[in-house]
Amino acid sequence: MSETEALLEIKNVGKEYDGNRVLKDINFTVDKGKIVGLVGENGAGKSTLMNILFGMNVIVETGGYEGEIYFDGKKVNFKDPVDALNAGIGMVHQEFSLIPGFTVAENILLNMEKTQQSVISKVLGKRLDTIDLPSIHESARSAIDKLGVQLDSQSLVSEMPVGHKQFIEIAREINREKVKLIILDEPTAVLTETEADILLKSMRRLADMGVSIIFISHRLREITEVSDKIVVLRDGQVVVETPAEGVDIGQVAKWMVGRDVDTENIKTSKVDKIENKEIIMEVKNLWVDMPGETVKDVSLKIHQGEILGIGGLAGQGKLGIPNGIMGLFPSGGEIIFEGKSLPLNNTLEAQKNGISFVSEDRRGVGLLLDESIDWNITFNAMQIQERFIKPYLGGLIKFRDDKAMKECADKYIDELEIRCINEKQLARNLSGGNQQKVCLAKAFAMNPRLLFVSEPTRGIDIGAKRLVLNALEKYNEENNTTIVIISSELEELRSISDRVAIVCEGKIFGILPPDAPVEKFGLLMSGIHTKEEGEK
Amino acid sequence: MKNFDRKKLNRLLTGSVVPLMFLIISLIAIPISKFTGVYLADQIVTRLVRNSFLVLSLLLPIMAGMGINFGMTLGAMAGQIGLIFINDWGIKGAPGLILAAIVSTPIAILLGYFGGKVLNRAKGREMITSMMLGLFISGIYQFFLLYLCGSVIPFKNPGLLLSRGYGVRNALNLITAKGFDSLLLIKIGGVNIPVGTFLIIGLICLFTVWFKNTKLGHDMRAVGQDMSVSGSAGIDVEKTRIQSIIISTVLACYGQIIYLQNIGTLNTYNGADQAALFAAASLLVGGATVAKATISNAIIGTALFHLMFLVMPVAGKYITGQAMIGEYFRMFVSYGVVTLALILHSWKRQKDKEMDRRLDREISSAPK
């Protein structure tokens, strides 16, 4: 099989989850001692491909994959990660898998410790061997040296800066004697630029020692800088496999996001008109402590009556913005809404001021799953605005106004085409798309002046997607309600928004008109200012 | 850097604030109680002998991240069953105690295995689950002693049985009383020091230190800090956790035997009930948390907790003229300490997480 120097050969690999195709006919090779940069948007299939390669359980449990994988000349089909490890594939995950209370050396050699036999362990078994600490530190140091970085093998991981942790993980993988291929999944995401540069140098060192590397990153500058070959995935297919030499960043960005779009879907720019309108909300230096979606420093002006799209890759903090403003996660900074300062960390106050939020967590935050549709739609209006309530005895006793609730629910069921038996059906029993429509109706029922909609089309089918987006557009036109829509799907944002802001690494990286060229969006998502393009 | 120092200081404070508080309260109460120094020293030594083994048995599950093993009552019950059988067979002194340990070890291993299995299904809620498990097994224990002993299981000595002919009596005088204590008993200035028992306790301390350095102990520490990371490194998480509970249960079984030989009488049906609570309180008073505990936490905690136990009722009697107040105070304090420690721990863990994330944010948004 090894006609070339290929270490890994992926042939016609495909994968379906419950009839949902995520990978189609993937072909590419990784040569010995070379670095392959793997690029793709969220949902392009990178993770699935890596899961297949590493024999993760999800793949086996969902019926395996199609196609063939050749590793080191042999056809392989790993049943679990241990198989892959034994064959010589190491994986460094995006989240750190380190034990905080252990030293660097103990982490590098976790469960690969060198031990010494004692009298007791001879009787009671191997697990009672004593740990040989000096030799652990010795092997750890040699692994660290291979990386060419400065790390003290004795210090505790919990007391180390984040940047160093990535190196410990990599050192752990190269410490395995047989390792031939290392997969690095977004290793630079948490690093500062200088730290990332050191990491890139270490990767080159490893490659020169004969270890192949698959490098996944959304920072395209790093990809073009370090890779020998670039593979771009889009919608589950390899769109480009090319030597990295001479490829520029803009080109890669275009490959990554630029599917053949029917341009008529894209809204034409009226940014000038928007920016003349008065500002309804100004966000200054907002930070939000939302796990996995941290917002670091966001400043943003939202204009009256516009639809503002906020996009960006997962984990960069776009979801943190509405969740922080609505007080669902601890946050700080300053928010001025309609000329008045809005207190943070106070959901009730935000809602009372006429701001509504449709959460991305539909089933958790958005709905009362075991209550009926009419209850769900009117719940917030009832709680916050005291509507749908009939007072008796001069307000001493308040009863629900069931008739008004039914009227309101029926109105929205009709308007949004919510498919259900009647307004008394439980929210749990609706399909994803219809649940989302109930969430929208709930927000509309509050008559908001500013509406945040987070991932409105996540996990619903295409037909329902269009309905949801149309409903938002219509509501914006008819009521002149300002809408901020946060979505991972760039095309969706470009089809509905008046302006699109791109979030990267917890900050707004740029705001573009929806009809700006697609590679500009791609570059912003990768954390590159479009101005820099000319300089480099 | 500033954050870093604050974190260290915090850790030091939360580590020693509880023991200091107990020391101060006791120091105030000692003069009021009018106890002599020699009497107190003698009593503290006795309490250390009696209780420290039980407290030490809690260390391993904490290391394995399972919190305080309130299921150690399972081990205590196993130990009591062993002692009851030895009492019936009439073997006296230290040999009797050793035989009791041998008889009860398989029972403790079995119960520990069962407990570990159950706790693996209740990850993150180990403490409350083990407490409930203790109450449940207590029911089986009572059934075994009340109905099976003397009827299905033959007893030689009818004096141990209830007058109806089967079922063990409520209170037994142990013929193995002071079996270990009298082995090497020396007296220094009116203070009795049972060196034999202390040697056994020293042995268990050595065992714990040695065990931490074995592969199994190392794995337990890893599992205790992060189960998923350990699992992905190939450590058998479930098995490791079960083993920590088994060892803890067996040690608790020996601990209860040592405890009872010092007291000399066995309260057959509720003797084990409070064992876990008092051991847990002792450990926490010594400055341990539900995530980190050391041998010194255990020893210091046992001494301090029992010092307070000794002086408070008497001090309370002198102040209020009522002995009951002191007794009430004991229960109040021991439950209070456990509750406080649990709240402090989860509060601190949350704060630490928030602080880490904040630090993260500050580092990455700092000008490059």
From TrEMBL, chain A:
<feature type="domain" description="ABC transporter">
    <location>
        <begin position="8"/>
        <end position="260"/>
    </location>
</feature>
<dbReference type="GO" id="GO:0016887">
    <property type="term" value="F:ATP hydrolysis activity"/>
</dbReference>
<keyword id="KW-0067">ATP-binding</keyword>
<feature type="domain" description="ABC transporter">
    <location>
        <begin position="274"/>
        <end position="530"/>
    </location>
</feature>
<keyword id="KW-0547">Nucleotide-binding</keyword>
<dbReference type="InterPro" id="IPR017871">
    <property type="entry name" value="ABC_transporter-like_CS"/>
</dbReference>
<protein>
    <submittedName>
        <fullName>Sugar ABC transporter ATP-binding protein</fullName>
    </submittedName>
</protein>
<dbReference type="Pfam" id="PF00005">
    <property type="entry name" value="ABC_tran"/>
</dbReference>
<dbReference type="InterPro" id="IPR027417">
    <property type="entry name" value="P-loop_NTPase"/>
</dbReference>
<dbReference type="InterPro" id="IPR003593">
    <property type="entry name" value="AAA+_ATPase"/>
</dbReference>
<dbReference type="InterPro" id="IPR003439">
    <property type="entry name" value="ABC_transporter-like_ATP-bd"/>
</dbReference>
<dbReference type="InterPro" id="IPR050107">
    <property type="entry name" value="ABC_carbohydrate_import_ATPase"/>
</dbReference>
<dbReference type="GO" id="GO:0005524">
    <property type="term" value="F:ATP binding"/>
</dbReference>
TrEMBL record, chain B:
<feature type="transmembrane region" description="Helical">
    <location>
        <begin position="98"/>
        <end position="119"/>
    </location>
</feature>
<feature type="transmembrane region" description="Helical">
    <location>
        <begin position="131"/>
        <end position="153"/>
    </location>
</feature>
<protein>
    <submittedName>
        <fullName>ABC transporter permease</fullName>
    </submittedName>
</protein>
<feature type="transmembrane region" description="Helical">
    <location>
        <begin position="191"/>
        <end position="211"/>
    </location>
</feature>
<keyword id="KW-0812">Transmembrane</keyword>
<dbReference type="GO" id="GO:0022857">
    <property type="term" value="F:transmembrane transporter activity"/>
</dbReference>
<feature type="transmembrane region" description="Helical">
    <location>
        <begin position="298"/>
        <end position="316"/>
    </location>
</feature>
<feature type="transmembrane region" description="Helical">
    <location>
        <begin position="53"/>
        <end position="86"/>
    </location>
</feature>
<keyword id="KW-0472">Membrane</keyword>
<feature type="transmembrane region" description="Helical">
    <location>
        <begin position="20"/>
        <end position="41"/>
    </location>
</feature>
<dbReference type="InterPro" id="IPR001851">
    <property type="entry name" value="ABC_transp_permease"/>
</dbReference>
<dbReference type="Pfam" id="PF02653">
    <property type="entry name" value="BPD_transp_2"/>
</dbReference>
<keyword id="KW-1133">Transmembrane helix</keyword>
<keyword id="KW-1003">Cell membrane</keyword>
<dbReference type="GO" id="GO:0005886">
    <property type="term" value="C:plasma membrane"/>
</dbReference>
<feature type="transmembrane region" description="Helical">
    <location>
        <begin position="328"/>
        <end position="347"/>
    </location>
</feature>
